[in-house]
């Protein structure tokens, strides 16, 4: 039975995502002059005839008449004029293209570098923004400008191409190969169809030699064929067409500050593309080989940036042994291929320092190791980050002083110590200086110590001559101790400093995450974020969030942030970041002329806002480690803002759900509790109005009594609704006065007189109850609701009891019935609005009575609760007794006061 082949969900999802963007078509050639621009314009004319809206963003005709003729009939966006260093330049007007929003834009020379002052530093970034806006783009590219082939092109032609395009830009593009034979291309150069005659001759002599053209043509053909195979495989995956798929592979390249690493990265990129594999770029930072100079730090950052542009996942680790860190990560990430460089060093250098490559090969255990030999270079310099100033005279003076101090002590006790012990004691300043100040002062202490040992203690004393040459060994030992201990001390100090820096960064991130985790308001969270980021980076910081109209506004900023810095130019950069979800500003390839760096507060595909860092007082952008820390802060900030936003949305959803539940309950109550008494009233009135029936006085009285009872029922229902509305809106005002609770109970029972006639009611009251200060009408409503609730939820004919007592500064009133007992959950929810006991669905009512009781009692400062008793349910509420001031009514019964 054949296995069912289903489309690959990931491939389908990727295909759907690509459909949202514009389609990129690249007219690829082996070299200039093959006719890429001409072919692009021919294709554009065909699309124009089909009715497609085609606009020229940028086309370079180089003065060729046949190329210029193909521009006829096409809409052309005027170029943007820029001034740089006193000269005027023209560039593609990206904003005009985005505003025009054509179906197809023509953008020539994809690898072009834009003039400083443009939004992006590279034209391919302009094209990416057009694609993100849903605009199709036709563009041109020569094979030598592809980043992964840059080193191969340099090896073939001897010329390093500076303008390159990352391979990822072409991953989803349609490739149209424009190819001509080498002889025809050379003829075009000679005829001046590519460059002017003088430039053409120079180009033919240096770059466009027949061998170079053939090699570049082969690269272009191979790349186009590989892309065709990849597109076919993607189509087969997306549509579930069976076929042999390559096994999962993973490539890892080892990166260092060396310029040779750029070549390794490109090799790894080509290998990963050929294997259709994921790939990693790893840098291992060790205390002895940390780049100390700014040039090397910048080169390392460029190498890691190159790997990211080519699609690698970059990882930085710290450790003592480079080979062990490489292999450990390779095993954790299931790496199948390791690409590592091997500079051509001498055997002696490798014997002294060890070979990382050899150790990786020996311990690889099934992992393929690809060793790329490099050019001969001088031995790698081992840097030790300076802990104190390198030429501090105080450190050398301290080392010499320590040596002289120990020598003086030895002179005093020389006859008791002996030469051996004196030599050992003179090593103490060496060890102390190595630990305290490093290699230089330790060597100074060792030299001075040995000279003092020779001059003061070795015969003949008082001179630097040595009678026994064996003491030369002592001098060598002194120097070796100084070098070894100083080197070890520097390494330990460097590692401690590195650990402290990492610890500080982790502590800062943890502190920020802890501070914002428990905060439920947005403003305190934003203040914490700006304060922590500003303190860590020592730069002014602001968080920009959109207002109701979608315009970015400063929601929080550090104390040193200058409000005048936020001008129209900076606002435009921040808006671009918010719209596109990519960082921009100083130190990036996008809008690098800005005075600040702007990072998107992004979670997934949704951008919540922008973090702005003012760099107006800095000549360059953030360092790579600062940028990584800032991005970590941005991630935390974005998660916090998203959390608060989702929390607010969840709260609103709960409110909506509760409102819907209350609306449904109210609708059901209205439909039952209004229609039922109305039906009784209408029935009774109809019977009375019928002329063909004669009622005696008893029957007439019963019908009228029914009308009265149902009208009172409706009145209570409407009163409950109005009381709950007043409670919810805060409009309920208490009119407190001295009240006799016995009178209130009497009025409440009389209101329920008809309903209570068939039920025994027991009232128990403590003697000499004091007066209470309360709103008598509202307390009466509480008692009516409690008694009505007891009537509804107890068996007919069963007893209802009402108890009043005075306890601990309050009056406690309880209403008990012999109805069903409730669970603990029901006892807690019984006072919720519209809550009805599910065991008694046939009982009428809105479920508002007890909720109103709770609101009124709590407004008086009392409490209300429900509890089970052996025979049923008791609901109790308390009212506080006020303190008696001068001239107020004493706590006595009203009748007694009247009697006085």
Structural features, described:
The chain is 50% helix and 16% strand. The strands form six sheets. The chain has a six-stranded parallel sheet with strand order 3-2-6-7-1-8, sandwiched between helices. It has 900 residues and is α/β, with parallel strands linked by helices. The protein has 30 helices and 25 strands. It starts with 8 loop residues before the first helix and ends with a helix. The radius of gyration is 44 Å and the shape is flat. It is a multi-pass membrane protein. It comes from Candidatus Fermentithermobacillus carboniphilus. InterPro entries: GAF, GAF-like_dom_sf, HATPase_C_sf, HATPase_dom, His_kinase_dom, HisK_dim/P_dom, HisK_dim/P_sf, Histidine_kinase_KdpD.
Helix content: 40-55%
Rg for CA atoms? 44 Å
How far is the first residue's CA from the last residue's CA? 108 Å
Given the C-alpha coordinates, what overall shape results?
flat
Beta-strand content estimate: 15-25%
Average residue pLDDT:
78
Low-confidence residue ranges: 1-5, 377-391, 893-900
Q: Which secondary-structure class do the elements indicate? A: alpha/beta
Number of strands: 25
**Looking across the biggest beta sheet, what order are the strands in?**
3-2-6-7-1-8
The main β sheet shows up as:
6 strands, parallel
Count the helices. How many?
Answer: 30
Properties at a glance:
five-stranded parallel sheet; disordered N terminus; 900 residues; disordered C terminus; flat; alpha/beta; six-stranded parallel sheet
